[in-house]
Write a structure and sequence with these properties.
alpha/beta, 44% helix, 6-stranded mixed beta sheet
């Protein structure tokens, strides 16, 4: 089957609607994977019946639509296990190429390149871990279920912390934790060091971060006896307007149904989020 031949004729807008990425990103992935196969001297098994373009398209369909490997195999004339192995191989090639990586935490120590950052957390539904206990009298949740259960979303989730540059609006680094972890605890567990001159903006879930960093901005919280004044409300609206770009990044992540809907796998979550972050950048 040659699914890419039909997709190649559509406009750039429809191409991005179908795959979730621009045509430039798609062609760059094809170029990297073709170069890898040409340089590899040891041939790994029989050659694939699919072209490299169709293999890459199958990977992006998996990301964009969150289809099962069984359905992907039917669409491309492969077995379920073969579709799984193909996508795993392509992901490893792209990560190992070195082109799909973020700047990381070290970039936050350079105040010449980065003037300000915005930190926020988004959640992705997760597959509920199975109970290991078979005793019907004890129906308590297992420790794995407790660690993934998010009290805010009322379901099992993965948490993704994004740090973006306020000027370029690109993702600098991503960090992961299970759904039960609080946003501020996730930030502390990541052990992020930021240059004092870099301006840092957080939401109200990061109360206490000003003790760790200087030059921070948080929204002012109201209490029952101390409602917000007009100036405080105006300050919160101004901060929200500046922080809205991280919400745009969150929405770009959710374009890929792999992260919008339930993430069925229990592995490779961080690798796939990193790849998607690089596709967005």
């Amino acid at each position: 089957m040659n699914n890419y031949a039909a997709l190649k004729k559509v406009s750039n807008t429809k191409f991005r609607r179908y795959t979730g990425v621009t045509r430039f990103v798609f062609d760059f992935c094809v170029l990297l994977i073709r170069a890898y196969f040409e340089q590899t001297k040891i041939k790994e098994g029989r050659p694939s019946n699919l072209s490299i373009e169709d293999q890459v398209l199958m990977m992006f369909e998996y990301y964009r639509e969150n289809r099962t490997f069984f359905h992907l195999g039917l669409s491309y004339g492969l077995s379920e296990s073969n579709a799984y192995r193909t996508i795993i191989k392509l992901e490893d090639i792209l990560i190992q190429s070195g082109y799909f990586k973020l700047d990381g935490k070290k970039a936050l120590l350079d105040d010449k390149k980065i003037k300000g950052i915005i930190v926020d957390v988004t959640e992705t539904p997760a597959q509920r871990p199975k109970k290991k206990r078979r005793n019907k009298r004890n129906i308590k949740r297992s420790s794995k279920q407790k660690r993934k259960y998010s009290g805010k979303k009322k379901r099992h989730t993965h948490k993704i912390q994004l740090i973006i540059d306020t000027d370029t609006r690109q993702i600098i680094s991503v960090h992961f934790e299970k759904g039960a972890c609080h946003d501020f605890k996730l930030y502390k567990n990541a052990k992020i060091r930021v240059h004092p001159n870099i301006k840092k903006q957080f939401d109200s879930g990061y109360q206490g971060v000003q003790k760790l960093h200087t030059n921070t901005e948080l929204p002012i919280k109201a209490s029952k006896k101390h409602p917000l004044t007009k100036e405080q409300k105006r300050s919160n609206r101004k901060l929200a307007k500046e922080r809205v770009y991280v919400e745009h990044s969150n929405s770009k992540f959710k374009v890929f149904n792999l992260l919008e809907n339930r993430f069925r796998s229990h592995s490779r979550f961080g690798l796939r989020v990193t790849l998607i972050a690089c596709f967005i950048n």
